[in-house]
Amino acid sequence: MHDLPLRTSLVVSAEGSSARTARAAVHDLCAHAHVGNETADVAALLVSELVTNAHEHAGGPAVVDVVVDGRALRVAVEDEDPTIPAAPAVDVDAERGRGLVLVAALASRWGTALTGHGKSVWFELDRA
């Protein structure tokens, strides 16, 4: 078993494959930290939503930071758009717009923060 905390960070470009790259990084770190499959799957889903939102709204690369310690798994996605997002009301007929709704529903905690050059959207999942 690895000593905790474990961390990985990566820059993902604004390409269609970036969400897949972020999901793979989350799953890999979760496997090394012996995080359960259910938590790893939820984290992968949520990081995919945040990376997609970052690219859609900021239009450039995003930095994904993942940390696992004995208490929780924390994922932050930072982009260069300083606009703080808010979880929208869900239109059940809409094909899009559910990313932050999923984050709010599935994460133990989540939030946003302004950075020196944009914003960070983060979530935590408690370890069982």
TrEMBL record:
UniProt cross-references to Gene3D superfamilies, sorted A to Z: Histidine kinase-like ATPase, C-terminal domain
InterPro entries xref list: Anti-sigma-factor_SerPK (IPR050267), HATPase_C_sf (IPR036890), HATPase_dom (IPR003594)
Keyword Transferase: yes
GO MF annotations, alphabetized: ATP binding
Occurrences of domain Histidine kinase/HSP90-like ATPase (ranges): 13-123
UniProt keyword annotations, A-Z: ATP-binding, Kinase, Nucleotide-binding, Serine/threonine-protein kinase, Transferase
Listed name of the protein: ATP-binding protein
